[in-house]
Amino acid sequence: MSETRDTLTITDNRTGRTYELPVEDGSIRAMDLRQIKVADDDFGLLTYDPGFKNTASCRSSICFIDGDVGILRYRGYPIEQLAESSSFLEVAYLIIHGELPTPEQHEQWVYEITHHTFIHENIKQFMDGFHHDAHPMGMLVSTVGALSTFYPEAKGTGAETRHMQIVRLIAKFPTLAAFAYRHSIGMRYAYPDNDLSFAGNFLNMMWKTTELKYEPDPVLERAMDVLLILHADHEQNCSTTTMRVIGSSDADPYSASAGACAALYGRKHGGANEAVLNMLQDIGSVDKVAEAVAAAKAGEYRLMGFGHRVYKNYDPRAKIVRELAHEVFDITGKNPLIDIAVELERIALEDEYFVSRKLYPNVDFYSGIIYQAMGFPVSMFPVLFAMGRIPGWLAHWQEHVLDEEQAISRPRQLYTGADERDYVPLSLR
Ligand code: CMC
Description:
The protein is mainly alpha-helical.
């Protein structure tokens, strides 16, 4: 009886040699290709993968996505159940620790986060130094990085040190985010209120004016919490990969988080929901939607908030955000852009161009509409994304530094430059 083995047989037609490589978890090890050489002094075969479109850079047990079906799970729990029944801090615990907390663990976790929300007064002064109309995301990138100078012990490698920085980063992100916003509009900072929930306190720091005690609307507080849950992790995306790459050099987690924020700042990543809002505003009314879809099909522009590298089905987060939008509008009043968005989705999902390319709404399609209805300016959209994503970044950073198979991230290149040549003095050029 012939035995089937999980291997890949490669014949190198340059030499006629055959190699058998093990296949594990549907992958081969790139380093196994290095034995494939044309001469003894040959470096060995490399893989070339711009954009890492087909490279698994780690083993991870944090987040599972099945893009063909439209499934997203954190540590095995479906995103729909977490959005329905959990809270952002509980999800943060789950993502970082791998299991849902017991009631005691939950209480301790919430207590710790709540009691680290304040930032050093010098950070506030640092914030004051920004230009009056500085972009809040630029301020977030800088101040998160600056935190590393306040906690030099963060470079340590012990479990307790790691835990402390994880707590600080999750706790201080909303404070930095809200302070950045208040600075950008020239408004006095509102300090954290430890009586409020994580989301409620964030809304307090954003919107508190002259009232003695800010009381968040429970529907908006819950909506904020759900939006944070939906953004908490999404496996090896650009910013998470950045977090891992920086962490791989043993940089502290504040510096790594600043890098992750910077990666998120770009419009191909955390900036897409702003682009959706601009697009809907440009379309202007429901009767112009068909025209706009035709222009996108003709390649004049891309429908923002449509399509995803991984999801080739409806992004499960987009479904939840769409439902949430109506609950928010009951409180804030309807954002008229929702009618344009719903019509756009209806037409696109019936159109052969979008159907054949498997282009569905992604999480950014509806989130900007909710944020706008809640009063957030578009410049805050990537900041809100970062606030939700910080537990995911930290969980990946921790997983990476504890993974004995990992080494400093250092890809190879295919050199395309000049061969050796002699320097020519300036006077002779
Ligand atoms: N509108 C119109 N056509 C599109 C769109 C779109 N939004 N997205 C992809 N296509 C077409 C594209 O022109 C190409 O067509 P063809 O095969 O005829 O050349 C085909 O679909 C495949 O596109 P691709 O660029 O190879 O796909 P990708 O996986 O590299 O890109 C994407 C994924 C998200 C960058 C892209 O779909 C896009 O630009 N979407 C709009 C921006 C957006 O919503 N980004 C948010 C992503 S989710 C949140 C996050 O990750 O931060």
